[in-house]
Each structure stands twice: as structure tokens, then as C-alpha cells.
């Protein structure tokens, strides 16, 4: 598959966990009743917006999603996809550029990514940069249609699927971050990393989602351990010596989850409650 570039901000604990495994991926499908899965990116944006009580950007993202679902359903969703640049040059040119001024767009977070499997959609990000705050919505069709905006287009690639992070230094830094802040979770992290390396692609994956209970919407997560549980194919290969067992210092054979509870949130804001009532399909974003 294709090699792309992404800024991977490992100051986010969930991102650090995924990076330590060596993986970047789009949202998992957890569309059970009362549950809506999101990318780590959007989950974190919603958390920040609720904390500041300013959800205007989140409303706009769901408004854009409504257009996509109606007119461009085959395009990858901004809500669940992962964001890339076509080249290192494209990734570097945005630093300091209007609309891209953020601490996460830092050279130390930049990595080449090998997209193992998945699909991609390409858009000119200048539509977003120049029109995101506008009340006008006509530009959204042009964005999803793949039209260019102005004379300096900047292609963003949005993918669904799984990628392998190739920046070894960044992966090592992420591993140290988890070891320092969540030491009890290291056995699970090491097993998940080994499973991912052997193409159990969702091993140990952090899956953030929104769930609704009565008049309360919560942002929570699970960690996918199906490949680490008893009788799994991965553990069978490990026990049979097909996959070499990892050396884990002072390990008693048990493992614990990392405590990412600080990333959770709750809200009673009507907008988020309405997302569930309308199942996004006929959502009014006002």
C-alpha cells in the first residue's frame, strides 16, 4: 500500500499508546445501540470543546459529515478517518501556515506511515482553512468533489484502515511515555505490539466512543484484547513457538489496562444528545 506522512502527537495518552504499538488507524466500528465510535482525533476535539464550552467547530464537523453522507457517501468521513499528507514536503509546508498553527504540527511528531490496508480520499484542505468558520455551506460540495481552492492547493489525504508508523524514534518516545505514566500496562503493551507486528492489526487497539444513557452523553473507550485473551490464535502461536515470546522484566503472567480515565468526559449538551436521537442521518446542526 501507499506511504504517506502524518503528524502524530504523542502528548495525547491514547495516541501515545497506539504509537508505541506502531499503529495509526481509523475508528473501529462500534455502532451498537447508544454507541458511536469516533477517531481519537475527533474524540479529543470533542473533549476539549466540552471542557471549554465552545462546540462551534464540532457542530461544523458534523454539518460537513451530513453533506458527505447525503451527496458523497463513498468518500472517507472526517469523523472516523485518519489524516495524512501525500509527501514530507506537503507536511512541512503547513508549519506556521494560516489555519495550521498548532503545537501538534511539530517536526518531532512527523512520521512516514505505511498504509497496510484501507481506502483513501483526497481533498484540497484550503477549502477547510478558508471557509470552515463561514455560515455559507456551498463550499462543502466543492470540497468533497475534489475541486481545488485558489492557486495554492494543499492536498489532505483522509484514510480508513490501518497504517504502520515508521518513525522509530517517535515510537520509542511513545513507549517511554507509557512506561513512565502507566507502568502496570507494559505487559499488555508489549504483547499488543508483538501481535501487531505479526499482523494481528487491531491487537490492543484503543477504541474511543460516545455513549448515551438517558439524558447524559459520555465519552469513554475500550481496549481491544481479543488477540491477547485465552485461546486466541496469537497466544497459540506464542505458546507453540511460532512467534518468539517477548522478554518482560518481572512479569508474573498477568497484565493490566492503562488508566486513560482522565480522557473521559460527560455532557448534557442538547447537541450531543440529538446526535443519538437522529442517528446522524437527518441531523440538524444548529
Walk me through this protein's architecture:
Strands 1, 2, 4, 5 and 6 form a five-stranded antiparallel beta sheet that branches. Strands 3-7-8-9 form a four-stranded antiparallel beta sheet. The chain has one domain. It has helices at residues 13-21, 40-52, 56-71, 88-93, 126-131, 138-144, 168-181, 186-197, 233-239, 270-278; strands spanning 3-7, 23-25, 35-37, 82-85, 110-124, 155-165, 206-213, 216-223, 265-267. The model is unreliable at 280-286 (pLDDT under 50). The chain is built from ten helices and nine strands. By secondary structure, the protein is an alpha+beta fold. Strand 7 (206-213) and strand 8 form a beta hairpin. The protein is globular, with a radius of gyration of 20 Å. The relative contact order is 0.19.
Structural class: alpha+beta
What is the count of structural domains?
1
Q: Please report the number of helical segments.
A: 10
The major beta sheet can be summarized as: 5 strands, antiparallel
